[in-house]
Amino acid sequence: MESIFNSKQEFIECYRSQIMAITGKDFEHASDFDRFNALARLIASRARTVQTATDNRVAKSGKKRVYYFSIEFLIGRLLDNYLLNFGARDLVCQGLRDLGADLDDLCDLEPDPALGNGGLGRLAACLLDSMAHEGIAGYGNGMRYRYGLFKQEILDGRQVETTDEWLASGYPWEVRRQDKAVTIGFGGRVVGYEDGGRMYYRTEDTQDVLAVPYDIPVVGYGGKTVNKLRVWSTEPLEEHFDLDAFNRGSYAEADAHRADAEAISAILYPNDAGEHGRLLRLKQEYLFVAAGISTILDTFRLEHGRAWSELPDFVAIHTNDTHPAMCGPELMRILIDEERLGWDEAWSIVTKTLSYTNHTILPEALETWSIGTFSKLLPRLYQIIEEIARRWQDDFDKSRTGWQDLLRNTAILWDGQVRMANLSVICSHSVNGVAKIHTDILEHTVLKDFYALMPDKFNNKTNGISHRRFLAESNPGYARLITEVIGDAWLDDASQLARLTEFESDPSFLERAARVKRENKARLARYMAAEHAISIDPNTIFDVQVKRFHSYKRQLLNIFKIMDIYNRRISDPNFAVAPTTFIFSGKAASSYAFAKETIRLINSVADVINADARVNEIMRVCFIPDFRVSNAQLIYPAAEISEQISTAGMEASGTSNMKLMMNGAITLGTLDGANIEIVNLAGADSEMIFGLTAEEVEELREKGTYFAWDMYNADRARLGRVIDELTDDTFSALSGNFESIRNEVMQSNDANLVMKDFGSYVDAWERLTATYADPMSWNRRSVHNTATSGWFSSDRTIREYRDEIWHA
Ligand code: NBG
């Protein structure tokens, strides 16, 4: 691979002058942050040089461009990743060492922008990485939230949300593109006018804001392709600073106009727990859609003039979940109102250009907007949606038996709501789920009526992860070891990891892999000690559940297991299990009371257990605050057990399961989401599966014969005791008992079947941890997980999108 620096000496010289140019100081007097900042800016400017070359190449070759619209891009820190992708990591590391600085220390100073909630946002970032690696002209289009998602702190066991000021010291990767700013109008009234015998429409008296793009380079591994992620920020169109108000001392009022505009890009909303229906969120969605489409069409006009019928040949627009669902109507609006195409012609262009990924089957997570709110905020767009809906109904094949049901379930406008998922399906030529079982469920339950009407639209694209970030960069010790035995081709082609199977029975390799794991555990322990003054012991098993808190993900089941093991040990000092540290991390949506109480329960149990000498030899519980990409990269490599315990049928895919597998953790999980593909690839002997299957869950629900109280009565000694302890003060020292959790399980009849799966789960955990006593066998399974994880590289995922959806 060609590096961006010809030699270490060249790097040092460039770096020194960069520091001087930015800070007016020489290297020796620059602060660590100055040093980080200058290094990132130096790499960013190299990246932009390659980006310009990439752009020119794409323009010249007439390559199809792919635009990935996502309201979240959880990009993580970029410095280390871009050095790796540019093949400059070793050179820069040595150059810095010569100067007396440490690369890892500088990397730690980079802000980690929380521009996503979890899996969906991180997937978007992994797909960008892989698009650049595969040489696809692929661009991210999203939002630049000033504060991102909240920062999580734990106080008295509770989650407390604070603002994350990730932009406070500037962000070295971004370039503000004032020249590409777009005016976006909200509200107003639609005015029709006639021209050449046809009616056209425009919206007048709108409230306008300026959408200003910031471009962040996306460096592909190999350094040949640098794409970009464009994120939008909002500002007032014109300053309306109220000097009178200011002179009166009403400073907030004086600048209210600016504050209103900036509010649109201030924060990222949680994607779960009834956070829907907020006007500001609807504004965000329209803003990044309209601004993004406007950029796309500008580029197209420049390259292809107004040959609109060719748009689908040169442009693919992918909508990540329903948040960008307005792409369809917005593109229609421009083609009809501004470019003056006829409806049918425009519609054919739109549907050939758009595609849609669904990420959830949870009904409460499928977006809807009240028609009243929607039509007032976006009157012209609403008219277009109405027309799409009318034609859908009009064209409906009414000779089909049961067409009324099909029509009702596929309608875009229903019950006073705009249904964004239905809009997305109707406007797209492709609809995909994110793991095999998820796509099956879409086809046979959630979107079954669409599937009956247009089965060819549906396809599966099992998620993937960037193996470069989550293995090579996060786990450098393991990466070195792997490269030593199979060479470094796996960085480029993750399927090469399969060659590790040769070493699965090589004792010296297994031994070294185990040593690396041990070092990774010690690294996490150091982080916990330094950042959170929590001590954990690397000699215990690291059992890890890290993900968003949600009832269906069943962190509750995990903590019930821990309570049970604690109880059994207290009752019987001879009860022995393999010494384990139970590690949790993840945020709960601020308005999601149950999820927040689950966090408090975990911390309360941790408080009791960690202070109880009777059990400390065998167990400790640790909650890592503020889960985000950067600490995730420390957690995955240290994990030995990967807890993937959602109620079967509920987790669309999961991606932490893949990251943990790749880092050699053994999955303890249900047959849900991509766990199924993990078991298929690694073999049942390499993971530990328990619990009801999705079919069994379905059947149980249909029969209606499940009663939580039956579970309680059938196992008073263990499960019953755990339930009772929620309210008997055993764990109440941190802010009280857990009545609401008890009610959720007992009075609401345990919707997520925690009690049903409890027995088989604890049993599976005991069987799995018992095998830890045989390190050779454990290490073999661990390495086997890595060896069979290559298929989960997002490079594979993106090639499937490219070949089967985008045809780029
Ligand atoms: C999440 C699913 C995960 C999946 C990611 C990425 C949403 C709406 N969905 O199972 O819950 O892995 O998407 O596809 O965030």
From TrEMBL:
Give the EC number(s) listed in the UniProt record.
2.4.1.1
InterPro entries assigned:
Glycg_phsphrylas (IPR011833), Glyco_trans_35 (IPR000811), Pyridoxal_P_attach_site (IPR035090)
Catalytic activity line of the entry: [(1->4)-alpha-D-glucosyl](n) + phosphate = [(1->4)-alpha-D-glucosyl](n-1) + alpha-D-glucose 1-phosphate
Going by the record, the broad EC class of this enzyme is transferase
Q: Which GO terms describe its molecular function?
A: glycogen phosphorylase activity; pyridoxal phosphate binding
Role according to the record: Phosphorylase is an important allosteric enzyme in carbohydrate metabolism. Enzymes from different sources differ in their regulatory mechanisms and in their natural substrates. However, all known phosphorylases share catalytic and structural properties.
Q: Which family does it belong to?
A: Belongs to the glycogen phosphorylase family.
PANTHER family in UniProt? GLYCOGEN PHOSPHORYLASE, GLYCOGEN PHOSPHORYLASE, LIVER FORM
Q: What is this protein called?
A: Alpha-1,4 glucan phosphorylase
Originating species? Coriobacterium glomerans (strain ATCC 49209 / DSM 20642 / JCM 10262 / PW2)
